[in-house]
Amino acid sequence: MQKSIIGLLCLFLLVAPVEGQSLLTYDWPTAEGEALLSDKYAITVSQGGATLVSQVIMSESKDIEIPNFAEEFKGGRTMNWTMFAANFSQPVTVSVTKLFGSGAPEVEVVPSPFGIVPTLSTDGRTATFTLEAADYVAVNFKSSDNRHTSDGVVKHMLMVFAEPPEANAPNPGDPGVVVYSDDSDPAVLNQAQTLYFPPGYHDTRTSYPNGGNLASFANRDNKNIYFAPGAYVHGRMYMQQGQVRNLRIFGRGVLTGRDYKWSKNLGNNGGVLGVDSFDPIEAHVGINGSNNTAEGIIVCDGAFHGVNMGNGNARYERVKTWAWHPNNDGFRPWGENNRVNHCFLHVCDDVFYNKGLLVTETVIWQGFNGAIITYGWDGAYNTENSVLRNNYIIYPQWRGRGNNNGLVASQLDYDMRGTNIIISGLHVDGNVPAIMNLHTNSGKADNNDFQLPPGGSLGFIDGLILRDVTITGEQVSFSGNGFNQTPFASQSDLRGAVLTNGQIFRVQNVTFCNVSVAGETIDEDNVDEFVDRDPATADAIRFCATNPTTSVPLQYAGFQVSPTPTWGTVHYSGLPGGERLTLTLFSATGQRIGNPVFDAPSSGTFDLGHLPAGVYFLRLSGQSGSLTRRVLRL
Questions:
Q1: How many CB atoms lie within 10 A of CB 397?
Q2: Which residues of the chain have pLDDT under 50?
Q3: pLDDT at residue 624, rounded to an integer
Q4: Any residues with CB less than 8 A from the CB of 493 and at least 6 apart, and which?
Q5: Distance of alpha carbon 581 from its chain centroid, rounded?
Q6: Are 497 and 514 part of one and the same domain?
């Protein structure tokens, strides 16, 4: 009881606003064995003349759980983060100091559409920028000691979570509210209407069985679990049976699974099933039922799926989550009418399943494995009706297309149906291995198994619309198992399957509307460069009538660049006469390299020998339009 009273007093002292000031920072428990205070970054936030320290907390990569096929992601990566709240009646100035290694020559704040331009101190260690809204942004000090791979995977990730003022937080003294402590009796806690985690470190394994599983608290409808600012809780909540409605999990605290072990790796990690390791399809937070809500909290470092809030009318609002290895899916509610708004995810498997989702204003820092949204995996179910609108992908870490990597993927069995995904207003800061990775279950294909499951009826994939999708980087994969990564051009995959009985599992009704990769809009003339389509099992891609066209002007059709790949010099030819033409070389991220060549002759050379390996673009432009050719520098 004394611990709880002290925690509540600390909460009042630490987050009570100073009169006339809206800016709040939170204090986290950082004694040994508790939350890790970052030794990589320090942050202050300022508003209206007040400057506060905003603690930076750190999660360490679970290197032992990273499989050998992703060996390059081992080696001590970290996720660092800070959280503060403000009403943003005035802008908030954020000052970030890099504590490790050397100063950086450049710093970047993404998502880039936010238009945040930081200033960097002369020693390259402190970046300062302004936030005018409660947004989630990543700060990237672009120094050699912060690059984990040669293509720019960030070693020590940093997220700034700017929140609005907290509203309607419960009072720990209210009727029906019980304050958690590690020596609490679960039987008493479970009778409460609201379970309240106060500031401080808590380990639910000391009070709840099954590895600290809080699921028994969800024993009736309309209950609440509140994580106060500064509460750092080790535990999980997975319902193995029963249903609940209107469960609300909310607050500004953290639910960590740092000590849990991946059950597919027990031979290496020393975990014990039922003690600190569980079935990989169990979720860190897994709720059965409908109308359940997660708001404001952080759920991190688990060893299983992510945050699954039930079967219909699930709500996710300003939830932050991250994890490190395969099976770390993101949000996977089932049913229909599910909503995800203004969240952050850094996961290492499929972020979303196509189950009645509307996802908006969400930032995704994708790990090396999984799709942003999948039509599903083999499992005798159908998926349908999702819309992803106005979202952001930052620094995706994919190494290749694999069997389920890319923006949209599928691993459906032959008797399953996946229908109606719309992705609209998506901005990707970085490369992708595939816009689409649509096919049937790869395990069956690898085993030459094209049999319809017994009693099943033929399925299909029907309906994908990609509208206003901007990928700043290239559609590219990488080879290498260490720091040095070699890029090579990749294609999206679009194919169904011809079954043994002659039936065809089809992929159909895929539409592109203003989809661009590295500045080049995909259209009827160049789509085959981007997509590998099996014409026997997949329909041709459609294009919106309003799609801005980059059809090749006839007089430019002879423009060619060779050889590609190249070790240094490329030759261009086929430039027509009769107009003034310009040639410009761009990087894969759209940055101009060197000066344009004005009044370019009909043929000539470009030297790329001084440039690092990667994908580049040579753009021909004139009065008739423009045409871009890719060049791969080895």
A1: 25
A2: 1-14, 16-20, 547-551
A3: 64
A4: 401, 434, 436, 437, 438, 439, 531, 532
A5: 41
A6: yes
pLDDT of 625 reads 65
- Two structure tokens written together for 597: 């060549």
Which residue carries 């032992």 as its tokens? 64
Measured in whole angstroms, the distance separating CA 384 from the mean position of its chain's CA atoms is 21
Residue 485 shares a structural domain with residue 509: yes
Residue pair 74/63 in contact (Cβ under 8 Å)? The answer is: yes
Q: Quick one: CA torsion of 580, 585, 590, 595, rounded to 10 degrees?
A: -80
pTM of the model: 0.85
Rounded CA-CA distance 243/289 in Å is 5
The dihedral region occupied by 207, where left means phi > 0, alpha psi between -120 and 50, and beta the remainder, is alpha
> What's the number of domains the chain is made of?
4
CB atoms within 10 A of CB 24: 23
Quickly list H helices, 105-195: 186-189
DSSP β-ladder status, 383-394 and 417-429:
parallel
Longest dimension (CA), the chain: 86
Q: Are 259 and 214 in contact (CB under 8 A)?
A: no
Amino acid at 340: V
First to last CA, the chain: 65
Alpha-carbon gap, residue 423 to 426, rounded angstroms:
7
Write down the H helix ranges in 146-256. 186-189, 209-212
Q: Is 68 helix (H, G, I), strand (E, B) or coil?
A: helix
Judgement on whether residues 142 and 214 belong to the same structural domain of the protein:
no
> Which bin fits 208, alpha (ψ -120 to 50), beta or left (φ > 0)?
beta
Report how far residue 304's alpha carbon sits from residue 483's, in angstroms, rounded to the nearest whole number: 27
Say which DSSP state 400 is in: S
Rg, Å, the chain Cα set: 26
Helix (H, G, I), strand (E, B) or coil at 369: coil
Domain containing residue 95: CATH number: 2.60.350.10
If asked whether residues 532 and 605 sit together in one domain, one would say no
Q: Which of 551, 586, 602 represents a domain boundary (last residue)?
A: 551
Give the model's pLDDT for residue 310: 98
